[in-house]
Amino acid sequence: MNDKPSALTRRQINAIETREDILDVASKEFSEKGLAGARIDEIAEKTQTSKRMIYYHFNSKDGLYQAVLERAYDRIRTQEQAARFEDLPPDQALRAIIGHNFDYHYEHPEFVRLVMSENVLMGEHIAQIANMKSRNRPVIQSLQSILDKGVAQDIFREGIDPVDLHMTISALSFYNVSNRYTFLHNFGVDFATPASRARRRVQIIECVMAWVKKG
Amino acid sequence: MNDKPSALTRRQINAIETREDILDVASKEFSEKGLAGARIDEIAEKTQTSKRMIYYHFNSKDGLYQAVLERAYDRIRTQEQAARFEDLPPDQALRAIIGHNFDYHYEHPEFVRLVMSENVLMGEHIAQIANMKSRNRPVIQSLQSILDKGVAQDIFREGIDPVDLHMTISALSFYNVSNRYTFLHNFGVDFATPASRARRRVQIIECVMAWVKKG
Amino acid sequence: MNDKPSALTRRQINAIETREDILDVASKEFSEKGLAGARIDEIAEKTQTSKRMIYYHFNSKDGLYQAVLERAYDRIRTQEQAARFEDLPPDQALRAIIGHNFDYHYEHPEFVRLVMSENVLMGEHIAQIANMKSRNRPVIQSLQSILDKGVAQDIFREGIDPVDLHMTISALSFYNVSNRYTFLHNFGVDFATPASRARRRVQIIECVMAWVKKG
Amino acid sequence: MNDKPSALTRRQINAIETREDILDVASKEFSEKGLAGARIDEIAEKTQTSKRMIYYHFNSKDGLYQAVLERAYDRIRTQEQAARFEDLPPDQALRAIIGHNFDYHYEHPEFVRLVMSENVLMGEHIAQIANMKSRNRPVIQSLQSILDKGVAQDIFREGIDPVDLHMTISALSFYNVSNRYTFLHNFGVDFATPASRARRRVQIIECVMAWVKKG
DNA sequence: GATGAATGAGTGTTCATTCAT
DNA sequence: TATGAATGAACACTCATTCAT
Fold first, then answer.
1. Residues of A in Cβ contact (< 8 Å) with B189
2. Quick check: helix, strand or coil at residue A89?
3. C38 beta carbon to strand E: under 7 Å
4. What is the predicted pLDDT for the residue at D57?
5. pLDDT confidence of residue C6
6. Which of A76, A153, C109, D207 could be stapled to C211 by a disulfide with Cβ–Cβ 3.0 to 4.6 Å?
7. Does residue A1 carry a pLDDT above 60?
8. In CATH, which of 2.60.120.10, 1.25.40.10, 1.10.357.10, 3.40.50.300 is domain B68-212?
């Protein structure tokens, strides 16, 4: 709308592209192999630029990892907020949110893997990213308002905490991506097939709704 | 010198002890840092024996990792089967199983972390452990029999698959340990406190029961 | 716009100021860390200008180092010649010169450190500075004339070479600054305290005078 | 005399030789280029072993540098104590000590250069070597006893501190090696020629003796 | 069987310097 | 002129693994 302030030179645009290129490649590598398993050399090779540029833009392997993590969280938050389900009837809104959450995890296994890695590292990098809590507030507020409406309409149980609800939804969605490999080997069930996905999507929605709905 | 009843020589017993010592240390290191993050030198140092013995008993870092993983799964299976809840009324039996599953995860974060690591590695090591599926059958059979009884008593819904049920229970239990660090930073909720644990335990049982029960 | 008396344009003055600014910072860095230990990036950062300007004015790290060295020698020579002790009685003149030399080293440890560094580098940079010998002639001539007067007055020994005398004075003054750290650790004596300085100043004067004086 | 305790295996002897080999090469490199200027790769290349072994034995570049420094000091102390001049008449004893000190510096420029480097680094490595002060005590005690005898025989001045005396001797000996390059370029005098050495040796002895002797 | 010594390929990182605008 | 982006060669250091005794 207003193009004045963003007077970027060709050079600056290139720099941003270089950064994004590095982040794209690093994102893939870190999510596939974890922080310790990924190799800066390999990342550099798959990039349009050089290893030196990685250090120029991100200072260290850890710095790059943190930037990758931050961007991954930015993206899921952006998606969550883009979908505005609050205006639907509470029952439908909640179903939509659960389905959306499930789909996001399903379609972004690299995000799930990054989060796993970060937890294996005991959250030492996410701890250095500021404002995470405040950036997550909208998701919780959205759930809160839906819960309130549902309670007012006497279709949802009272006393359900929106953070607990979010946790439950995420747990069920996350597991189907995070534990894909061990579950496959332990039980012979492959979460990755379209049929399995569709079936599980319904189940998770049913499970959460059964818990929230007035019995 | 060598008394009959013991079929094992002193030497063999020592060998087993050495193996267990190494596995204990390696288990801790791998679960804390993942496969790539752990260091053979560090593991050897924390052991009563030497680095040479690690290679003698396990051939390679990967071999050691796989042995650690296998032992961890053996232990959870043993625990699951030790608890015989099938004789309780189906409602109580299921509640007991969920609670037990939740507790096991809570009390064995190193197991959870190993499973995460293995999934980050795309299950390449678990894939080399034989008979996993058959070893997991009892858990599923146990759930099946409880579900059957519940359906027969008209208190559980029909058509619930025991593997899906196990998946749901595990997902909810696993997440509270696996995503402890990122959830804490994202939402300020610490899963590790006793109060949080007790509260979540009840919630998870309620959630699963709401889904299974005839409504 | 451009007033006559000043032969330099504003631009040229700025250039000189930039040069001096860089030299000041580089002097500190090189004397603290040596040529190999100092970092161009760090020097640039502590400067009012940019890294590009360092290369503009001095071509290379070595060029900058050489300029720093040259300026340091210029300064000590200027100081030596500013003090005109030749008119004093030879005995007093020599004492004054020794004291002055001692004080200069004491008060300019960065000069001492640069000279040390340059000797560690086997004098490869000073070798490229022209006219050093001729610029040092006045100091020697001054000592010569004092020695001559002292001999004529029969208070100094004959046959003392002014360069040897300068060497002796410098050696004693230099060591107290150059070897400060190792001497402290080896003998527990700190050259840097005011008491230690005052005491040593007297001693050095006495030592040199004992050697020069007719005995 | 007693060969029991030193039962070294061939293997251990090799290890010691490897260590010494590395120290020899590193000593040369560090003294020629300083800590920052020397390259681990280059040191390794000139060695019979590999870079890996340097880290195995010395942990880091700094660790290697410190070991080099410690050995250099050990050697000069050993030499100082091997020469037992205390039994000579005080006048001759002191002359012998000064000459010996001068010769040692002259013949071990690599020691002088290491000490210079360490002072440029502000003594951060020597500070980590224990017992330096106590190891240096014999030198001071030796000077003390000579001074005492000289005073008793009424040929030396009273009140000369042995540490000050050592400092004076060292300063004069050190400078001729340490400042060889800058002095050559500044005054055209080369300390390294045999003639220059012999001349300066006499001068330094005369200078110190003039200071110590009763006037 | 047990120990310290050894290995070589690779791992993250830094350097002085130059380019493009 | 002045600045941020870019470069590639080199740098200190580490890894899992094996050898020799």
1. 163, 167
2. coil
3. yes
4. 94
5. 53
6. D207
7. no
8. 1.10.357.10
Least confident range from A79-93, A186-200, B20-34, D6-20: namely D6-20
User: Sign of the C-alpha dihedral, residues A156, A160, A161, A165?
Assistant: negative
The ranges assigned to domains in chain A are: 68-212
| Predicted local distance difference test score (pLDDT) of residue D11 | 72
Answer yes or no: are the C-beta atoms of B106 and B165 closer than 8 Å: no
Indicate whether C67 pLDDT > 70: yes
Per-residue flag: D78 CB under 7 A of strand F = no
Kindly report the nearest CA distance between residue B184 and chain A, in angstroms: 9
Rounded CA separation A215/A213 (Å)? 6
User: With contact defined as beta carbons under 8 Å apart, do D178 and C178 qualify?
Assistant: yes
Any strand E atom closer than 7 Å to A50 CB: no
Judged by CB atoms closer than 8 Å, whether chains meet at C186 and D119 is answered as no
Q: How far apart are CA B88 and CA B94, in angstroms?
A: 9
How far off is chain C from D190, nearest CA to CA, in Å? 12
d(CA D162, CA D196): 28
- Kindly give, in sequence order, each residue whose CB lies less than 8 Å from that of residue D37, ignoring residues fewer than 6 positions away: C34, C35, C36, C120, C121
**What average pLDDT score do residues D63-69 get?**
96
Lookup: tokens for A94: 């909640």
Kindly tell me if the per-residue pLDDT of D1 is higher than 80. Answer: no
Q: Which residue has the higher pLDDT, A209 or A82?
A: A209
**Residue of A165, A178, A180, A186 to mutate, testing the B interface (most B Cβ within 10 Å of its Cβ):** A186
- Given a cut of 70, is residue B111 above it in pLDDT? yes
Cα separations in angstroms, A16 against A20, A26, A46: 6, 15, 17
DSSP β-bridge partners for residue B213: B156
Q: Do chains A and B touch (3 or more CB pairs under 8 A)?
A: yes
